[in-house]
Design the sequence.
């Protein structure tokens, strides 16, 4: 008898700063199930200042909780395919993009290869990841024992100030 592959809980970080940013994120959310990732929870959208020093438009960011039978590298191939289908083309490192999907966490796995590092190596330093992550998993303990809330609390206020609920941005217009 062949056993079913295990379901894995994954957290994905989504971002877009080209085209219709909200529609790009919605496309990703709605396309993931057909690619083998069931979306269990989605954070609100946040408008965020660009990170990394490249001059470009603000991003919309979101974090999703999902479950999948895909192994880590297969999941990476799947999200990169979804980025290409949305219109992402190679550009400047940390530059503008139609769609960016990062694997933040995969179960409690700690994994490293040339193509993928889990947990995402920069997530503890990025308010645009931690703020939406806390919306859907406020008590989340990260591999290594640190909590997402503690990581967010340690961030500089300037980093946090660049992350604003998108509904609040819209209400100011």
Sequence:
């Amino acid at each position: 008898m062949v056993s079913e592959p295990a379901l894995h809980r994954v957290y994905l970080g989504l971002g877009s700063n080209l085209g219709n940013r909200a529609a790009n994120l919605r496309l990703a959310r709605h396309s993931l199930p057909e690619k083998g990732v069931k979306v269990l929870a989605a954070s609100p959208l946040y408008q965020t200042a660009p990170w990394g020093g490249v001059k470009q438009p603000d991003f919309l960011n979101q974090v999703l909780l999902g479950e999948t039978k895909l192994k880590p590298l297969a999941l990476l191939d799947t999200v990169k395919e979804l980025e290409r289908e949305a219109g992402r083309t190679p550009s400047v490192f940390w530059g503008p993009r139609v769609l960016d999907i990062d694997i933040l966490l995969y179960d409690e796995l700690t994994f490293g290869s040339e193509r993928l590092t889990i947990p995402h190596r920069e997530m503890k330093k990025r308010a645009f990841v931690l703020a939406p992550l806390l919306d859907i998993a406020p008590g989340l303990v990260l591999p290594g024992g640190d909590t997402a809330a503690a990581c967010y609390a340690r961030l500089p206020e300037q980093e946090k100030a660049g992350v604003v609920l998108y509904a609040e941005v819209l209400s100011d217009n």
In short: The radius of gyration is 16 Å. The longest helix spans residues 72-85. The CA atoms of residues 28 and 151 lie 27 Å apart. Helices lie at 21-31, 72-85, 127-136, 148-154, 157-161, 166-172.
